[in-house]
Design a protein that fits this description.
Blueprint lengths: L1 H36 L1 H27 L1 H26 L3 H18 L7
Helix pairs in contact: 1-2, 2-3, 3-4
């Protein structure tokens, strides 16, 4: 009986692996062909899809948290993202000191703008 249960377990694992591979190929191959044949339409479609997902997620968070808390967090997020972006931008341009100061200033700006807020 033990040998039979090991065989069934191994067969299930094999079937799971094969089904994952086949499902992946069924999804990936048409997308790959589409991206190869028409890269601009593929890129635009993916960007639209990602934008819709972001908008839906932001709307759900807005409804759950309320307007004031949502916009405070959104502004804080954009300040941090801009600080990171310009930090990397200046570092890659060879201006390391300006890049580091940009990041530090964005952190200080967030701290000063939202100091004492009862957000969390």
């Amino acid at each position: 009986m033990k040998l039979h249960s090991y065989f069934v377990a191994a067969l299930r694992i094999f079937i799971l692996i094969v089904s994952c591979i086949l499902l992946g190929l069924i999804i990936v191959i048409p997308l790959w062909k589409w991206a190869s044949l028409s890269p601009t339409t593929y890129t635009n479609a993916i960007l639209v899809l990602l934008s819709l997902i972001c908008i839906y997620t932001l709307f759900k968070i807005y409804k759950r948290q309320g307007a004031k808390k949502f916009f405070r967090r959104l502004v804080k997020f954009f300040i941090i993202i801009a600080g990171i972006y310009f930090c990397f931008f200046f570092i890659l341009k060879g201006k390391r000191l300006i890049g580091i100061f940009t990041f530090i200033i964005s952190i200080i700006l967030c701290t000063l703008l939202f100091k004492g807020s009862k957000e969390e």
